[in-house]
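$ ./design --mode recover --in tokens.txt
reading tokens...
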């Protein structure tokens, strides 16, 4: 596996995101909605650097089987009430953009005062929607990455760094 972003680089990226969020919301209460499961590490690191009164909820989506996209399903039962709230949607990576596009559509119908989105990573040249998250820490090349919350068949999320998963690595994974 090739390391793309070290633990130190990730830390600096999260620090930068936190400063931008603190600057943008100026102490106003914020509701964060993290997309499970990939955003959990980012959320845990990011929210401890935020200075405003904070509510934290989650929404679950899943679209991948291995490294291939499948049909998207959304489970919003654990999302929190977002009507009349400033809301920040958080995900690990913006790839085609369809996941955040669909979650955003669903959330808009619930009447938040404002809705912005944040991702750790944006995969260069892959977007199929005509917008981008307001907050992005890193642009990365078009490779399948794991670690810092991102998985391959539910493994590797615990790596403290971000790595490119190569075909040779895939053969070694238990199934
Ligand atoms: P999108 O809907 O933007 O194409 O994909 C977003 C979701 O796909 C992310 O939440 C993430 O779960 C998954 N995904 C996209 N690219 C990668 C990748 O390189 N590695 C991993 N582990 N997941 C990815
Ligand atoms: Mg995901």
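writing sequence...
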């Amino acid at each position: 596996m090739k390391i793309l972003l070290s633990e130190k680089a990730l830390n600096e990226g999260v620090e930068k995101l936190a400063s931008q969020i603190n600057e943008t919301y100026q102490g106003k209460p914020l509701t964060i909605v993290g997309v499970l499961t990939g955003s959990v590490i980012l959320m845990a690191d990011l929210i401890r650097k935020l200075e405003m009164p904070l509510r934290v909820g989650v929404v679950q989506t899943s679209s991948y089987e291995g490294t291939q996209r499948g049909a998207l399903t959304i489970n919003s039962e654990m999302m929190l009430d977002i009507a009349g709230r400033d809301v920040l949607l958080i995900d690990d990576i913006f790839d085609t953009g369809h996941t955040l596009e669909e979650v955003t559509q669903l959330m808009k119908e619930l009447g938040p005062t404002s809705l912005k989105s944040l991702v750790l990573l944006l995969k260069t040249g892959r977007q199929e929607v005509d917008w981008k998250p307001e907050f992005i820490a890193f642009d990365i090349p078009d490779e399948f990455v794991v670690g810092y919350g991102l998985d391959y068949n539910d493994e590797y999320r615990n790596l403290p760094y971000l790595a490119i998963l190569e075909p040779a690595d895939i053969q070694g994974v238990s199934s």
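exit 0
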